[in-house]
Fold this protein.
Amino acid sequence: MQVQWYRVNKRQPCQVCGKPDWCTYSVLGACCMRIQSDRPLRNGGWLHRLSKNWTPRNSEVTLVKPDKDKPLTVDKLRALINRWENDTTDEIYGRVASFLNVKVSALKKLHCCWAPEYGALAFPMRDGNGQLCGIRLRSMTGRKWTVKGSHEGIFLPDTNPDRTVYIVEGPTDTAAALSIKLYAIGRPSCLSGTEILLSTIKRLNISRVVIVADNDKPGISGALKLSPQLHVPHVIIVLPDKDMRDYVAHGGTAHGIQQIVSTQQWIV
């Protein structure tokens, strides 16, 4: 029997992380993309049991249709990104940058492009050696998924690294940080991509890390779990807004973040 998975929304948020996007649920339980359990799923999320008194509102959710595309090899994923990037016009970049409240230059540093087959933005994911390992897709409504054949990776800008890196969650927060001239790397979620991140920090000879936690329980929890695994001086900061993208959209600056960092004690 094929299990139907339903996407969460504002009326029916995820019963695990409480957010209205990205996660799904079915008769098997909730697939949370942010909070780990001992039952990982193929889509990168984790299965959780739901409370006995919880009833899904199937009429208020969108069915997640199975992707019938065959898994692609890394070479084919690379060819897709190259084609999409070449076909993404300046007009499209301008519209996307305006919608996300980031700069076009930041999107291009991440090799973000428009994927017409999926009707979504495409962000390359990188492994610990900086090589393409997958493609994250993001619709303009905020839905997030990956091209079949992708492996989890980080969002790494194509630019010279600074000695200090700002670790944020997701590609759009990475673009926001780059837009205010901070060198940033994005984790795939608040609790994932740790080993790739650690390998990248070592490979790029980064000497200091600022973990920018989303202003919610999962974001702070993920930052606290990452902290003891870092072997370089680091601090954890929580911005006055929901996340880095909201902070930048509301006029936040690099100087403002640096002032917050200056009030923290470095962990060594």
Residues 1-65 form one domain. The longest strand covers residues 120-126. The chain has a mean pLDDT of 88. Helices lie at 74-87, 90-100, 104-109, 171-179, 194-203, 217-226, 244-249, 254-262.
